[in-house]
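Sample intake sheet
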Amino acid sequence: MKTDEVVNCEIEQEMEFTSLYRWQHWIRALSIVILTVTGFYIAAPFVSPIPNSEPTNFMYGLFRSWHEIFGFVMIAVVLFKTYLFLFSKKYKGEIGSVQDFINSKVWAQQIGYYLLISKHPHLKGTYNPLQFVAYIGFYILMAILIITGLILYVHVYHDGLGAMLYDIMRYFEVMLGGLAWVRELHHIAMFLNSKKLTLIQLAYLNRQLYL
């Protein structure tokens, strides 16, 4: 073939993530940041308002209200993502990752790929086994944060939604060992979740490089 010959080829574009999927991802990311900052403040207030004679210094209440608002936003986004994972045909590759997760050959090839001694395995799902473990761990921690957060919520708000959830949350409270341990578990899960997010970001970067 001559060097000046033009080769015509068509490049087919394929949408990997819809705008709705990306929106839920970034809303979840924003919620995590706000919940972390406000949660730290609720646990140990690190700034105080300027004192005055008027009853207007409700900074602690403001941080608590934002924590609760974005807590419910987080619950909604996690439920939506869980629905996509289990039932959406467009993202069936995500639940297809379970097949790679239980395949010992894929595990061996994936670990070998990270150790630079083998090629990347052919995957049936969206995530490789190590990525899938990171995501499953993330959502287990999210479930712990949501349940413990709702337990703490019903002990502050006794009407409306708090009253509706009180009995079931009291069951979880007793099962987890009491309100003091629920609070500690909430803090521990938040700390571990921040570490897990770092692993997920590394997995995401690796996936982009592979693609």
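Comment: The chain has two domains: 18-46+59-90, 92-211. Residues 179-210 form the longest helix (32 residues).
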